Amino acid sequence: MEERQTFGVDVAGIHRELPLFEIKPGLRIAILNILGDVEFVQAAAKALAARLEAVEYDLLISAETKSIPLVYQLAVDSQKPYVILRKNYKPYMGKALQHETLSITTGQTQTLYLDEKDLDLIRGKKVVIVDDVISTGSTLQAIRLIVQKAGAQTVAEAAVFTEGERAKWAEIISLGHLPVFSD
Q1: What is the topology classification, in CATH, of domain 37-177?
Q2: What is the pLDDT, as a whole number, of residue 183?
Q3: Which of 40, 83, 158, 183 is 20–30 Å from 144 (CA)?
C-alpha cells in the first residue's frame, strides 16, 4: 500500500498529521477528521471558546457530521446551547427550514435542514456558526441563510481551520489556516 502524504498542524499544543486527499485532478486538500479525537476536540474547543469570549452570543450552530463533537464541547465550555443542522430530512423534523449547498469533500449537492423543534430556540438569538474547516464557504453560506430565515442574527463564525484563499476568511475566528496543494 502506498504511503499517503500528510500535512502537519499544531492546535492548542496538540500536533496532528492530516492526510492529503485529491478532490479533483491536480488539487489536494488536508483532511481534518476530528471524530473520535477527544484530545484534539477538547483542546480546539477550549481555544475557540477563549477567542469567542469577547463575542456576545446566545447559541452555537453547526452542520452535521464532523463538527458535532467540536460544537458540543464548545457548548459545554461556553455554557451555551447548540443546534445541529441535519443533512437528511426525517418526518419528525416537521416544517424544517432548508437550504442547498455544494460540499467540497463530496463534490455533491447537499441540503441542510433546521428541525422545526429548533425554530423557537434560535428565533431572535445571536448565533455563532461553528465548523471544523471552512473551505469554499458554501456550507457557511447555507448556514447563514438558514439562520436568517429562522429570524436569528449571525454575530460570529468560528472554525478550527480555514482553507484556501486566506484573505477570504479574514473575519473567521479560527485556530489556523490550511493551504490547498496543487500538483
Answers
A1: Rossmann fold (3.40.50)
A2: 75
A3: 40
